Amino acid sequence: MANTVEVEKVSKSFGKKIVLNQIDLTIEEGTIYGFIGPSGAGKTTLVKMIVGMDSPDEGSIQVLGKKIPNLELMQDIGYMAQSDALYTELTGKENLAFFASLYKLNRAQTKERIAYTAKLVNLTDDLNKKVSAYSGGMKRRLSLAIALIQNPKMLILDEPTVGIDPELRLNIWNELIRLKEEGKTIIVTTHVMEEAERCDYIAMVRDGQILTRGTPTELKETYHARNFDEVFLQAGRVKQ
Fold it and tell me: DSSP state, 199?
């Protein structure tokens, strides 16, 4: 199986603070890869560099066989940031149509993708409302729909289910698993241990380093742990 992402010896500092330190990572095509760790661990910085929004101080990143950053890859990468970047004076539908216009979608494809993404995040009945009237959870759902609008080969979702109710969270995860089965590569950052369990592979990140990585089953077996909280605690002790 081909690698969608290859990260080699990547480091990043902001001022004197080392945010990422010599990260090596490969992510296979058609998998869900989760980054889990506390706030400030370096997860968001890493995914921003994989998207191409930031550059490493050292090391290199390749995505879909091309060195990052690369504007040509915009068509192939769907990105959902932690903070919602939405046009609040436009309706949900107008936001989706605007972002669809940035990609190579014809009118019929745009209509189809708006309908699909809105249904997925349960916003179909609210598409004609201005985003300024949306709740925080609705804005997160719209941001997820925008990340999917161009039917990308790779999805990068930074804390995608924060503020989303449990039933819809389950529906979204079921759809992510279906998209993975279509061959898409999905990268997710999360604080939620039960979401981490649904990933194919997990990297536990703390203080700019990967403490440990593997499948959920491998990690629990390696650390003789009943759950991910125990894995994280034990991995931290070993690293120290």
Answer: S
- What stretches of the chain show up as alpha helix (H) in DSSP? 43-51, 92-101, 107-120, 136-148, 166-181, 193-196, 216-222, 228-239
In three-state secondary structure terms, 167 is: helix
Structure-block tokens of residue 113: 């993708």
Q: How far apart are CA 109 and CA 122, in angstroms?
A: 20
List the CATH number of the domain containing 82.
3.40.50.300
| Count of domains forming the chain | 1
Q: Which residues of the chain have pLDDT under 70?
A: 1, 238-240
What's the CA angle centered on 183, arms 178 and 185, to 5 degrees? 90
The answer to whether the beta carbons of residues 46 and 38 sit under 8 Å apart is: no
In the three-class reduction of DSSP (H, G, I as helix; E, B as strand; rest coil), residue 141 is classed as helix
Cα dist from 17 to 1, 12, 14, 42, whole Å: 37, 9, 5, 11
pLDDT at 2: 80
Q: Give me the domain span that covers residue 11.
A: 3-239
Identify the pLDDT of residue 232: 78
Maximal C-alpha separation, the chain: 55
Stated pTM of the model? 0.91
Within 10 angstroms of residue 60's Cβ, the number of other Cβ atoms is 13
